[in-house]
From TrEMBL, chain A:
Chief site of localization: membrane
Pfam families: MrpF_PhaF (PF04066)
Membrane-traversing stretches: 12-30, 42-61, 67-91
Protein family membership: Belongs to the CPA3 antiporters (TC 2.A.63) subunit F family.
UniProt topology in membrane: Multi-pass membrane protein
Family annotation (InterPro entries): MrpF/PhaF-like (IPR007208)
Name the UniProt record assigns to this protein: K+/H+ antiporter subunit F
Entry annotated with the keyword RNA-binding: no
Organism: Ancylobacter oerskovii
Transmembrane helix keyword on record: yes
Keyword annotations from UniProtKB, A to Z: Cell membrane, Membrane, Transmembrane, Transmembrane helix, Transport
Location within or outside the cell: Cell membrane
TrEMBL record, chain B:
The protein's name: Na+/H+ antiporter subunit E
Family: Belongs to the CPA3 antiporters (TC 2.A.63) subunit E family.
Coiled-coil segments: none
Residues that span the membrane, as ranges: 111-130
Organism (species): Ancylobacter oerskovii
PANTHER family reported in the protein's UniProt record: NA(+)/H(+) ANTIPORTER SUBUNIT E1, NA(+)_H(+) ANTIPORTER SUBUNIT E1
UniProtKB/TrEMBL annotation, chain C:
Name of protein: Monovalent cation/H(+) antiporter subunit G
Keywords: Membrane, Transmembrane, Transmembrane helix
Region (Disordered): 104-123
InterPro entries (alphabetical): PhaG_MnhG_YufB
Pfam family, one: PhaG_MnhG_YufB
Transmembrane segments: 12-36, 48-68, 74-95
Gene: mnhG
Keyword Transmembrane helix: yes
Length: 97, 169, 123
């Protein structure tokens, strides 16, 4: 372990941030699983998407390449259109729980 | 619309949108190479012509100083409400008894102004835009910490709505 | 495990602080998603992550990549603008859908009319 202090600080902070975001994702999954209603599950899914985007951004910082930004942007886009479609579906009142 | 720059207007109907799209393209490509500028201009041009078909209601933004002031206010409020909502969540989130719906009468009528207000209110944690009735000019919103209804009405009307009306109307 | 780009000490500290703060705020928001006891209260929770949470991580990554490549890298601005515009849209749509469903079912906890609170106040 001859890594300089700066690299260690940033590395461990990134690990800490990833653990925190991982816990946040677990909270969102918990809400998706227990509901109780369809709108709660969709809200959990939306939060999960944003948190996954953040996780990708921290991985991107760690790797030092901009490769992960495209992935984060794609996740954000898909999450947005998915949630909007699901909310529209709820509005029609044709979801069977 | 028929100003001296009429020809430019006909080729590029929405110059601001054109520039924004071109900037987005160049940001995504991470390059300022001439090829990317040409390609980005073509894409932006196509998108602006599609916008002509949609025929959006024309608007004129006034008072850049008011815009800057509004942006600063929103930034401050985002920090403040993040702190407030975070405190509510961490300190006994199960007792969110104060949450509730409330209605505000709005004087703002401009569609774009209302859209910006909707984004501001929903983006600051603690307030959520639910439904706007354009005929009556009433706004139904949900507030997480609804202790004093009047203070929330004042926040919306004095802090945001007045500036938005200066900018859009 | 803890490999990371080599930044100068000041930048490493700044990026570390911003990223950890953003992640912590996101976690608080998601905890709210679990702890708040009513759907409409829960809708407020994810906005913490979508504003300061995303903001902290994005500013951190902007600093990191600007220092690494010694030129300003504004890729993150795109994500920030995108998140700022899309999050309110999804939350508004979701709240309206939920309100519509609750009204159809005659749930007494939601106002049946948009004007209920005004009528209560004005008498």
């Amino acid at each position: 372990m001859t890594e300089p202090l700066e690299v260690l600080i940033l590395g461990w902070s990134l690990t800490l941030a990833q653990v925190l975001v991982g816990l946040a994702m677990a909270c969102a999954v918990y809400r998706i699983l227990i509901g109780p209603r369809a709108q709660d599950r969709i809200l959990g899914l939306d939060t999960l998407y944003v948190n996954a985007m953040l996780l990708l951004l921290t991985i991107g910082i760690r790797s030092g390449t901009t490769l992960y930004f495209e992935a984060a942007l794609a996740i954000g886009l898909l999450g947005f259109s998915g949630t909007v479609a699901l909310a529209k579906f709820l509005m029609r009142g044709e979801v069977i729980e | 619309m028929n100003r001296p720059s009429g020809l430019l207007r006909r080729i590029i109907p929405f110059p601001l949108l054109f520039l924004a799209l071109l900037a987005m393209w160049l940001l995504l490509q991470q390059s300022l190479a001439p090829g990317h500028i040409v390609l980005g201009s073509l894409v932006a041009l196509g998108a602006t012509w599609v916008m002509v078909a949609l025929d959006p209601e024309p608007t004129r933004l006034r008072r850049p100083a008011a815009m800057a002031q509004l942006a600063l206010r929103v930034l401050v409020d985002v920090f403040r409400s993040n702190l407030a909502v975070g405190t509510i969540i961490l300190r006994g989130g199960r007792r969110s008894d104060h949450a509730g719906f409330m209605t505000v009468r709005l004087d703002l009528r401009n569609e774009y102004g209302l859209a910006v207000l909707a984004i501001i209110l929903t983006c600051t944690p603690g307030t959520l835009w639910v439904n706007h009735d354009p005929a009556r000019g009433t706004l139904l919103l949900h507030v997480l910490d609804l202790v004093d209804e009047q203070s929330w009405t004042d926040l919306i009307k004095l802090r945001y709505e007045r500036l938005l009306m200066e900018i859009f109307e | 495990m803890s490999t990371a780009p080599h930044l100068p000490l000041w930048a490493a500290l700044l990026v570390a602080a911003l990223v950890v703060a953003g992640a912590a705020i996101t976690l608080v928001g998601s905890i709210g998603l679990v702890r708040l006891n009513n759907f409409y209260a829960r809708v407020h929770a994810p906005t913490l992550g979508a504003t300061l949470g995303v903001g902290g991580v994005l500013v951190g990554s902007m600093i990191c990549f600007s220092v690494l490549q010694s030129r300003p890298l504004l890729h993150e601005v795109l994500i920030a603008v995108f998140v700022t515009i899309t999050t309110p849209v999804t939350l508004m749509l979701l709240a309206r859908a939920a309100l519509h469903r609750d009204r159809v079912e005659g749930n007494p906890e939601v106002p049946q009319s948009d004007l209920a609170s005004l009528e209560r106040r004005d008498g």
